[in-house]
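Lab notebook, bench 4. We co-purified these components, and the gel suggests they stay together. Before we commit to crystallization screens, I want a quick structural picture of the whole thing.
Request: model the full complex, all chains together.
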Amino acid sequence: MKLGSGVEWSIHCLALLGALPPGRSLRLEKLAEFHNLKVAYLRKHFQALSKAGLVATVTGPQGGYRLGRSSDKISLLDIYIALEGDDHCFRCTEIRQDGPCANPALDKPSYSIPCNIAVSMWKAEDAWRKELAKVSIADVLGATAKQVSSEKMERMAQWLTEALA
Amino acid sequence: MKLGSGVEWSIHCLALLGALPPGRSLRLEKLAEFHNLKVAYLRKHFQALSKAGLVATVTGPQGGYRLGRSSDKISLLDIYIALEGDDHCFRCTEIRQDGPCANPALDKPSYSIPCNIAVSMWKAEDAWRKELAKVSIADVLGATAKQVSSEKMERMAQWLTEALA
DNA sequence: GCATTGTGGATAAATTCTATCCATGATTGA
DNA sequence: TCAATCATGGATAGAATTTATCCACAATGC
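Here is the predicted assembly.
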């Protein structure tokens, strides 16, 4: 089971947007350029992020994207849900109600409560989501600031200045 | 991001194997029949389960599958790993090392530690896996015994008797 | 009004998932 | 000893999803 590539792309790009000066926007082509991503495909992801309110858009000259709310209020979970939806990872197709021993009509009362296997699987998903919800884009920025060399920091600052010109 | 259908199928089937009398095996066609699953595709999953040691096989007449170890020592995590592999769900393709501001040679020291985004995502995966590891097939059996109607229990016992004949 | 930006959706190749089939190997029972 | 019965390994294939592009159009600012 894999997360789509858009998740990695989007987290990195939202972190970049989090580093923008207040009120400024960065156009999509620049976002793509920063990590050498495919513009057209990144655009697809950003439309989902925009729909979910994680980014705000400005059309026209000097337009582009900026964070849709402050970086400490955008979690990794928000990004995941925006891109991949809010459905459970574990799909319970109710096979317990199938086969020669099943009688859905007769057993309807016990089938109205969710399958215990699904409940266990979903509980694990809840734990996963809880952890994702704990980490915001602000946290990512903070951790990245510690992790990235000062040389790269300088190059980034210069690149951003040029990109916003 | 979805789990494959084999995860649901396999958990249910391993629970059925956990209900077998000691030393008995159930052939794959019967396992498939119990939940109306596709035999040929279920076989694919069971080959992965067999490879992982979660089921043991008996060829020849009266052959089939049985649990590879006691049901309290087979967790939902074991089943997931057997079927979908042990790789991370979040794929870090190191896009941080790409783009105009990146200089992988120069920044090699900071790139030798994992990307902080990946670390956060993987931490969430660890929480998910921990929960999955807590639940065994024995637990599933116990919970199912509470959940299933006594009528269905009887039908199951009779079906098993016939299936093992 | 035009250039610059995002949006919505159609299209398509590649990959993965779902599923089957066939030849073969292992075991058991007559 | 051989046939029947079971699993195994791998090739094959259609459907669905992922990755990716392109085009027409909408919104904005100069």
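Chain B touches chain A through 66 residues (CB under 8 Å). Worth comparing against the SEC data before the next meeting. Chain B has a mean pLDDT of 95.
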